[in-house]
Request: fold
Amino acid sequence: MDVFCTEIAEWGTIETGGVLVGYIENDIIYIAKASSPGPNAIHDIASFQADANYVDMFIDMESANSAGRYQYIGEWHTHPQIEPTPSDTDLISLKEIADTSTDFALVFIIGAIDFKKEFLNTQSVCVIKFLNDPLFYQLEVEI
Ligand SMILES: [Zn+2]
Reply:
């Protein structure tokens, strides 16, 4: 959560993001930690690409520090919106990730305009795409 605030404070309405690690219990996805973008990330008005080496290292480190409990869950990034909606590019890349995954792909998008962490559940959208299922599903966000 603090990562989201720090990143939004630094980048404003320029997109930023990272990866999410967590665990799944009783079909509920718990997000434990979010990474920062990494030093070689590409930030733009309408696109974002995390630093692949950096986020891979983050995932390995969090997994090791939690004795394997925390695994890669998905990606997060900001949009210059108040209540964000996924872009076509987001859905295309989600489909591509899902197609190469074993189970699902997930993206968590946060509206960076007037962001307040107590409004995270309304200022964000979480979309999941399962392997071999053509539909996208929106997940409920609880803090
Ligand atoms: Zn997006």
